[in-house]
Amino acid sequence: MSKYMVIDGIRVEFENEKNILQVIQKAGIHVPTFCYYSDLSIYGACRMCVVEDERGGIIASCSTPPRDKMVVNTNTPKLHHHRKMILELLLASHCRDCTTCEKNQKCRLQMLAERFGLTDIRFKNSKVNSIVDDSSTSVVRDQGKCILCGDCVRMCNEIQHVGAIDFAARGSQMTVSTAFNKPLAETNCVNCGQCAAVCPTGALTIKSSLKDVWRAIYAKDTRVVVQVAPAVRVAIGEEFGLEPGKNSMGKVYTALRMLGFDTVFDTSVAADITIMEESQELVNKISAGDDKFPLFTSCCPAWIKFAQSKYPELMPYISTSKSPMEMFGAIIKEYYKPADERSGLKTYSVAIMPCAAKKFEAKREEFKRNGVPDVDCVITTNELVHMIKELGIQFNEIEPGAPDMPFSIASGAGVIFGVTGGVTEAALRKVAENTNEELRAIEYSGVRGMQGIKEAYVTLGDKTLHIGVVSGLGNADKLIKQIKSGKVKYDFVEVMACPYGCIAGAGQPFSHKADKMKSSAGMYKADKTATIKRSEDNPVVMKLYSDGVLSSEEKIHELLHVTYQ
């Protein structure tokens, strides 16, 4: 006989739910929370999720396991008073400049204050002006907006294994701080921005670059070229009421032209180029018989910084291929160089990315030529949403468009870069035999899926490759330790810093795991409907190599490869 709980008079059966809160959510009831995030450990600090049992006892639903025939109520006068008091106390020490806050209308504290009808706070605002730390290229810290929920600390420590921030001091003096209260830029922060992704208020936000983009768009002597990352297409629509995972890339092209961008490209084209280079590195490594460490992917800048700081001995085994964004940035600048010299214009390269770390990557010295960055500015999916709303563009109503020539064709292999396992699958399509049977074998080899650590064995000719795929730096940390200890051996390892891949980047609209799964499905659907499946079958890419800007080994090395300092 199945176990059940009685919640607000409703019988709700449960089986694998870890806590009462999950059973309540199963019943379709929303209990407010601040410190609860399903992917993190239970903290139980905010007490907003408390419920009342049949004897009038108050219990935290997030940290209490369900019991058979248990009776709880989620909405009683006692609970209502309790939650309003918590909100008032939080607001008494919180910045209330909501209209100018980056999280305005998306702040959980603001939402709950409205939900509980808080129009007046009985307590004097005791907030002390705090120094805003904007030293990082990716993340802004404002302690005046922190409610000590601990989500950011647990994300940075438990999921990412970075440990750039933690709790400091005790009692009323407690804060979330870096070691010795150093600016974030001077810590081991990898700029992944996952701390900001889970922050319920505006204490941690992704640094905005919109002023720079608008300035470039309005400059008469500037050609503004924009590239859009694959993962953007399945996330942006959520902000305009579309179904999660719906491919909105056509509407994005149209919106970008309406915003004033001169030329619009899809970064998936550069992903195809990345595969051409990275797969050749894999073949060369296998042929050379160097099996001390596997070949690691290089697309994720947060992973690169993590490896540099924690595992510098792995750097010679990380692909020298630039990320698709940086490859495309270099190609765009090189392609428009003759036209710029003739017209007197300058090309300003903008990249729209799902990732906060891409802002850091664009400013690295390794991606500058003669002191000029190949990508001038990076904005996130959320920043693009801001631009669209600012100009009053009705995203749902505009007609879909297409990318501009000459970089107008991308393969399905390039599109799936945005999901964990996508880079691996694209690379395997390149080195595999050109048969449908081989492609189907790769699809079902085990590289697809949302698991944090995946492995697969893929037979290519007379050799069987052992493949590792990880998302989330904590999972990468675990896998590297296993590799170094000799417990496992791989030929190729894909690493993405954000759990589930770029679809869950810190620059994307916030979504729960179920919606991320829909986004993943949307990426594979775009691949399935693509006419071209393999990167080497992309005529645009082949033309770049035959008689375009990549027609010489010198240019291939200059534009497509990097050596990290």
Explain what the structure shows.
The protein has helices at 20-26, 77-92, 108-115, 151-159, 194-198, 210-218, 249-259, 268-288, 301-310, 324-343, 357-362, 381-390, 412-415, 422-431, 436-443, 473-485, 513-528, 539-547, 553-560, and strands spanning 3-7, 10-14, 50-53, 58-60, 70-73, 139-141, 166-168, 175-177, 204-206, 222-228, 263-266, 295-296, 346-353, 368-369, 372-373, 377-380, 453-460, 463-471, 492-496. It has 565 residues and is an alpha/beta fold. Among the domains are: 3-75, Ubiquitin-like (UB roll) (Roll); 86-206, Alpha-Beta Plaits; 210-270 and 323-410, Rossmann fold (3-Layer(aba) Sandwich). The model has no long low-confidence stretch (mean pLDDT 93).
- Number of helical elements: 19
Amount of beta strand: 5-15%
Provide the residue-averaged pLDDT.
93
For the record, give the distance between the C-alpha atoms at the N and C termini, rounded to a whole number.
63 Å
Multimer state: single chain
CATH architecture of the domain at 210-270 and 323-410: 3-Layer(aba) Sandwich
Shape: globular
What spatial order of strands do you see in the largest sheet?
A: 2-1-5-3-4
Radius of gyration, in angstroms, nearest whole number:
25 Å
Helix content: 25-40%
At the fold tier of CATH, the topology name of the domain at 210-270 and 323-410 is: Rossmann fold
In CATH, what is the class of the domain at 210-270 and 323-410? Alpha Beta
Question: Which sheet architecture does the biggest sheet show?
Answer: 5 strands, mixed
> Which structural class is indicated by helix and strand composition?
alpha/beta
Q: pLDDT below 50 for ≥5 consecutive residues: which ranges?
A: none
- The tally of strands reads 19
